[in-house]
Amino acid sequence: MSDPGPLSEAGPLGEAGPLGPVAAVSPATTDTVPGPQLGLATMTVVVGFAGLVASLIVLGSVAEGVRSREVFALDTWATPFLHGIASPGMDALMNGLTDLGTSLIIIPIFVVVVAVLLRKRHYGAALFLTVASVGSLVLQGTMKLFFARPRPQLPWANVLPDYSFPSGHTMNAVIFYGALALILWSAFGRRIGVIALVITAALAFGVGVSRIYLGYHYLTDVVGGLLAGIAWLLVVGAAFRARPTWRRWRTARTPGTRRPDGPGAAAVG
Predict the structure, then answer these.
(1) Which of 217, 238, 119, 215 lies closest to 173 in space, CA to CA?
(2) Spatial CB neighbours of 136, under 8 Å, sequence gap ≥ 6
(3) Phi-psi domain of 245 (left: phi exceeds 0; alpha: psi -120 through 50; beta: other)
(4) What is the pLDDT along the chain (269 residues), one digit of tens a residue?
(5) Cα–Cα separations (whole angstroms), residue 250 to 16, 31, 34, 216, 239
(6) How far apart are CA 244 and CA 154, in angstroms?
(7) CA distances from 100 to 87, 121, 185, 229 (A)
(8) Other CB atoms within 10 A of residue 240 CB
(9) How many secondary structure helices (H) and strands (E) does the chain include?
(10) Per-residue three-class SS string for 37-92
(11) Is the separation of the CB atoms in 191 and 125 below 8 Å?
C-alpha cells in the first residue's frame, strides 16, 4: 500500500472516503484537524444508520427464530440444493472459498497490513482494522454462546464442536475484507474503494455459500453472519467517521498545538 500523501491529496481531488481521508502523521501540526466534507459525512451517517437499522431488524427476526428453534423453509431447501450440485471441482472451489474466512488466511494478512499501516504512520487505519477484527471475534463468540444452535447433522459433513449461529467464517469475511475496502477507499478514492467493496461482497457471498455447501451451517446462519458483520462494520465505521468532529471539539475547548496522531486525523489518519 503506497503512501497517499498529504491529507489534501488522499483520493481523487482530496475526496474523503467513508472513513474520511487518510493521511500520514505530520511531525508537527498546529490549529485544528481538518474533518471530512460535510455533505459526504452526512450521507455516510444517514446511509450507515439506515443500513444498521435494516440489518438489525432482519437479524433480529432471524435470531428470534433460531432462539425458538424454528425450522426455516430456506434452511431445508438450501442445503440439499447445494449438495445436489456437488462435484470434485465444486468441492475444491468451496474449500478454497471457505479458507478465505479462516484465521490461517486472515491473521497473516492482518499482520502484514497493520505493519504497513504503522510504518506509513496511518495509525488510525491500523486501529480501525484492529477494532473491527477483534470486535468480530468477540461478537460472534458471544452470539454463538447465546443462541447455542447445534450444527447441521449431515452424513457427508464433519460436525464441528462449536455452535452454528451465526457463521463465523462469513462474519470474518464481511468485517475483515470490508474494513480493508473502506481503508482503501479512504486512502485512494472512490473508484478503488467501490471496486474493493464489490470484491468484498463477492468474497463474503462465496464464503457463506461454501459454509452451506460443506454442511457446516444452515442458510440462516450465513444470513445472520452477513447481517451481524454489516451491522458491526457500520458501527465501527460510523465511530471512526465521527472522530474528527470529536477532536475539533476538544481542540476548540483546549487551545494550543495538537498533533493529529491516530484516527483523529480524519478518522483513519
Answers:
(1) 217
(2) 171, 172, 175, 176, 229, 232
(3) alpha
(4) 444 443 333 444 334 556 655 544 444 444 443 444 455 555 655 665 666 666 656 666 666 666 556 656 667 777 778 877 888 888 899 999 999 999 899 999 999 999 999 998 888 889 899 989 998 888 888 888 887 777 887 777 676 777 888 888 999 999 999 999 999 988 888 889 899 999 999 999 999 999 988 888 888 889 888 988 988 888 888 777 766 544 444 444 555 444 444 333 444 55
(5) 22, 12, 13, 49, 16
(6) 51
(7) 20, 28, 21, 15
(8) 25
(9) 9, 0
(10) CHHHHHHHHHHHHHHHHHHHHHHHHHHHHHHCCCCCHHHHHHHHHHHHCCCHHHHH
(11) no
Give the integer Cα–Cα distance in Å for 181 and 43.
18
Tell me, yes or no, whether 19 lies in a domain. Answer: no
Burial of 137 (0-12, 13-18, 19+ CB in 10 A): middle
The count of domains in the chain is 1
In order of 1, 7, 37, the CA distances from 34 in angstroms are 23, 8, 9
Residue listed under C-alpha cell 480493508: 180
- Is residue 125 in some structural domain? yes
Q: Is residue 7 included in any domain, yes or no? A: no
∠ CA 96-101-105, rounded to 5°: 80
Flag whether 3 is in a domain: no
Question: 58 is in which domain, residue-wise?
Answer: 35-244
Residue whose C-alpha cell is 425458538: 68
